[in-house]
Design a protein that fits this description.
The chain is 43% helix and 12% strand. By secondary structure, it is α/β, with parallel strands linked by helices. It folds into three domains: 133 residues, Rossmann fold (3-Layer(aba) Sandwich); 233 residues, Type I PLP-dependent aspartate aminotransferase-like (Major domain) (Aspartate Aminotransferase, domain 2, 3-Layer(aba) Sandwich); 124 residues, Alpha-Beta Complex (Aspartate Aminotransferase, domain 1). The strands form four sheets. The protein has a seven-stranded mixed beta sheet, sandwiched between helices. It starts with a strand and ends with a helix. The structure holds pyridoxal-5'-phosphate (PLP). The site of pyridoxal-5'-phosphate has 15 residues, from helix 11 and helix 12.
C-alpha cells in the first residue's frame, strides 16, 4: 500500500515536542506494515524552510531518506491554477490518481476529507489504516507500477541526465549500461540493441547465418526465437524439449546436425539455463555457433557461470515485464570475443564505419539512451529482486505441499541453479484452461507460455512439421500455467493464489 504524507505531518510534529514521538512511531509503523510513503516535491522546500527556523531539518532529513519524492509535471502545476482556490487539493488529487495512492496521512484529515480526498489522521491511524489493509482479493500477474516507489527518484535522475545532455542515440549512457551488463553477465562486452528479438537477429547476422544455413532450436519458445532465424534467411530445425526443464533436450540434438547447421539457439526458458555442457560440446566439435536466447534469464546461472557467458552470444530482452525491464522495448547482446563485439557494433548502425561508409548491410538495432538510463537505475536492484523471486518460488513450493496439492500441481524444478524465475510455471494437467478461468474469476492473473508450439503455427507450415512431431512440447503447451511470481508479489498474495487453486480442486 502506498500513501502520501502531507506536509503538515512533518511541520506540525517536528515543531511540537509532544507530537514528535507520536509521529515517529507512526512513521515506524508504516514501515513495519510495508506502507510506502510519498511526499510531494513541492512540499519539500516549504517544509525545509519552515523547519530551518527551528533547526529541525536533520530529523526531517532522516524521514526523507525513506520517502519517495513525488514530482508533478510543470503542466500539472500550471493547470492547477485554473482551480486557484483549491490549488493544494488539486495537486494532492493529481498525485493520488497519477501514482495510484490509497490515502493521505495528515494532521488535519477533516480538511482534506471535506474536499473529497481520502485522508487518515494521526490519532486514529491504526484503525483507519487497517481498513485499507484488507485481506487480499486480487493478484495481478505483474504489477510494474508497484515498483515505482522504490525506483522513481533514481529513474528520474538518470532520465533527466540524458534529456538534459541531448544525447539520445547511443552515447555515454548506453556505454555505461553495456559495461555494467557485461560485468553482471561475466562477459567482456555487451552491445545494447533495440529489443530481445533484434538481439537474436543481430547475433545470427554476426555469426554469418544466412540463406542455405540451418539453425537448431526448440518449438517451445516465444515466437521471436524462430522468427529471427527466418528473418536471417536460414532454415529453423526443431528439436523437442526436456519435460522437466522445458529446455532443449540435448539427447535429441546430435541427430539434427547436418553439414548445413550453422548455429544452435538454446533457450533458457522461464529463467533456468538449458543444459549447456552437452550443447557446447556438440557445437565445438562441429564448429557451430551457440547463441543463447537468454531473453528470460538475466542473472541465471549454469554451473556457477552466468547466462549470456556460456555460448558465443547471449541475447537478452528488456521488455518491461522481464526481471530487468525498461520503460519500453530494449535488449542487449553479451559477447567475450572482440571480433564478435566489433561486428555487432557495426551491424547495429547499418554496417557504417566511418559514418556513411558501409562495410556491411546491418540495420538500426540501437538501444535508446533513455531506456539505458532507466536500466542503469534498475540494475543495482536486480539481485534484490531475484532474491525475492526465488523466495516466492520457495513459498509456492511449500504452500503447494502444505495444501496437499502436490499430485495435482507440479512445481517447477530447479535442475541447474540458479533459476531466476522470470516465470513460475506449474504443470496442472488437462484442467489447465478451467483452472485459469477460475483464477481469473478470483482476480488472479496467470498466463500460458505458450499455448501453441511454434511448429504448428500457421506461418511456419512451409517448414513441413505437423502435430505429433514434438510430443513433449505439445503436452507442455496444454498443461502448463504461469502464476504471479514477480518481486512485488507478497506472501499473503501467494497464500490467496494457492487457496484458490485448492478451492478449484476441492
Ligand atoms: C524466449 C524469448 N526470446 C525472445 C524474446 C524477444 O524479446 P523482445 O520482446 O524484447 O523482442 C522474448 C520476449 O518475451 C522471449 O521470451
Amino acid at each position: 500500500m502506498q500513501i502520501l504524507f502531507h506536509k503538515d505531518f512533518f511541520t506540525e510534529s517536528l515543531q511540537d515536542n509532544s507530537l514528535k514521538g507520536q509521529c515517529q512511531s507512526l512513521f515506524d509503523k508504516c514501515r513495519e506494515k510495508n506502507i510506502e510513503g510519498w511526499i510531494l516535491a513541492t512540499s519539500v522546500p516549504e517544509i525545509i524552510q519552515t523547519l530551518q527556523k527551528e533547526k529541525l531539518t536533520n530529523a526531517f532529513k532522516e524521514w526523507l531518506e525513506v520517502l519517495t519524492i513525488l514530482p508533478l509535471t510543470g503542466n500539472e502545476l500550471r493547470d492547477g491554477l485554473k482551480e486557484a482556490n483549491n490549488y493544494e487539493f488539486y495537486l494532492i488529487k493529481q498525485a493520488i490518481s497519477g501514482f495510484r495512492l490509497k490515502a493521505v496521512l495528515t494532521a488535519h484529515p477533516e480538511r482534506l476529507q471535506a474536499n473529497g480526498i481520502t485522508a487518515i489522521g494521526c490519532s486514529n491511524f491504526e484503525d483507519d489504516i487497517s481498513k485499507f489493509l484488507s485481506p487480499v482479493s486480487s493478484v495481478p500477474l505483474v504489477n510494474v507500477p508497484a515498483t515505482h516507489h522504490d525506483l522513481w527518484n533514481d529513474v528520474e535522475d538518470q532520465m533527466a541526465g540524458v534529456v538534459r545532455s541531448g544525447m539520445f542515440i547511443l552515447g555515454p549512457k548506453v556505454a555505461e549500461l553495456e559495461e555494467q551488463i557485461a560485468n553482471y553477465c561475466q562477459t567482456k562486452y555487451a552491445v545494447g540493441v533495440s529489443s530481445g528479438t533484434d538481439a537474436l537477429l543481430i547475433s545470427l547476422m554476426a555469426a554469418g547465418v544466412g540463406p542455405g544455413d540451418e539453425v537448431i532450436t526448440t518449438p517451445f519458445t516465444f515466437f521471436a526465437t524462430i522468427g529471427s532465424i527466418c528473418r536471417a534467411g536460414a532454415l529453423p530445425v526443431l528439436v523437442d524439449i526436456d519435460p522437466v526443464t522445458f529446455n532443449i533436450d540435448p539427447k535429441k540434438l546430435e541427430e539434427k546436425i547436418t553439414p548445413k547447421t550453422r548455429a544452435i539457439i538454446p533457450i533458457h526458458l522461464y529463467g533456468q539455463c538449458a543444459d549447456m555442457d552437452p550443447i557446447l560440446e556438440l557445437a565445438n566439435s562441429h564448429g557451430i555457433s551457440v547463441i543463447e536466447d537468454a531473453a528470460q534469464a538475466i542473472g541465471s546461472e549454469y554451473k556457477f557461470k552466468r547466462a549470456g557467458s556460456l555460448g558465443d552470444y547471449g541475447c537478452f530482452s528488456f521488455f518491461p515485464t522481464k526481471n530487468l525491464g525498461g520503460f519500453g522495448d530494449g535488449g542487449i547482446v553479451t559477447v567475450s570475443k572482440e571480433e564478435n563485439y566489433e561486428k555487432l557494433k557495426l551491424l547495429r548502425v547499418h554496417g557504417s564505419k566511418p559514418k556513411y561508409y558501409h562495410k556491411l548491410v546491418g540495420g538500426n538495432f540501437r538501444l535508446d539512451a533513455l531506456q539505458a538510463a532507466v536500466l542503469c537505475a534498475k540494475l543495482p536492484r536486480l539481485e534484490k529482486w531475484t532474491k525475492r523471486r526465488r523466495e516466492n518460488s520457495e513459498n509456492y513450493n511449500r504452500l503447494i505441499l502444505e495444501n496437499g496439492l502436490a499430485d495435482k500441481v507440479q512445481s517447477p524444478q530447479e535442475i541447474f541453479p540458479r533459476h531466476i524465475y522470470n516465470q513460475y510455471v506449474v504443470r496442472v494437467g488437462e484442467n489447465r484452461d478451467s483452472i485459469r478461468e477460475f483464477l481469473g474469476q478470483n482476480k488472479i492473473g496467470s498466463e500460458v507460455y505458450y499455448p501453441v508450439p511454434l511448429h504448428v503455427q500457421e506461418c511456419f507450415q512451409s517448414l513441413g512439421y505437423k502435430e505429433g512431431d514434438f510430443p513433449v512440447s505439445e503436452k507442455a503447451a496444454k498443461e502448463t500455467l504461469a502464476l504471479p511470481i514477480s518481486h512485488e508479489v507478497n506472501l499473503d498474495q501467494q497464500v490467496y493464489v494457492i487457496e484458490k487453486m485448492k478451492q478449484f480442486f476441492s
